[in-house]
Specification:
Layout (H helix, E strand, L loop, with lengths): L1 E3 L17 E2 L6 E6 L10 E6 L6 E9 L7 E12 L4 E10 L3 E11 L13 E6 L7 E11 L6 E12 L2
Antiparallel strand pairs: 1-11, 2-5, 3-4, 4-11, 5-10, 6-9, 6-11, 7-8, 7-10
Length: 170
């Protein structure tokens, strides 16, 4: 049985400080919710765009999923992404855990997409990315999902949709 832990995986709600998805970019980089008038989403009516204006900026979205996870269960992080414009970039999706409400366990699960593995720029083709975790430790009280885009070569735009984090209970 799999339990979806994230709220609003298709970005139907605005990216805002009140969440569920929060723009954690350092300005002028940004995360913006967009609709089909700009470009087609993977599914539904919206997607999120991570956008940098110059080299060495990072655009990031995050969501904290409060959840008591069953020890020895697994996490599955998945999303659809497309490189909309710009040079190759480093894309990193991570899941950080919190144990007993206070102890961080960073980098528990990651999907790295280095510049050499970037898909070609495209206006309508999304690529699917997925990763599975090792067994979850005892005492997990929340999971924080973060997706970041950084380019060393210039301004980039990446689009993300249907971001899911499942707790796979056997």
């Amino acid at each position: 049985m799999a339990i979806q832990l994230l709220a609003d995986p298709s970005f139907d709600l605005p990216v805002s400080p009140s969440g569920p998805w929060v723009d954690a970019s350092i300005p002028p980089a940004s995360a913006q919710r967009r609709d089909a008038t700009i470009a087609p989403p993977h599914t539904g009516g919206f997607f999120v765009c991570l956008d940098t204006d110059a080299a060495n900026q990072t655009a990031r979205i995050t969501q904290i999923a409060p959840a008591l996870l069953l020890p020895s269960s697994n996490l599955r992080l998945a999303f659809f992404a497309r490189r909309f414009t710009g040079p190759a970039a480093t894309v990193t999706a991570t899941v950080d855990l919190t144990l007993f409400g206070i102890f961080p366990l960073p980098g528990f699960l990651a999907i790295p997409i280095p510049p050499g593995a970037n898909p070609p720029t495209s206006s309508n083709v999304y690529e699917y990315y997925e990763a599975f975790s090792q067994p979850v430790p005892f005492g997990v009280t929340s999971a924080t999902v973060s997706i970041a885009v950084t380019s060393a070569l210039g301004a980039v735009t990446w689009d993300f949709d249907d971001v899911t984090l499942y707790n796979d209970v056997i």
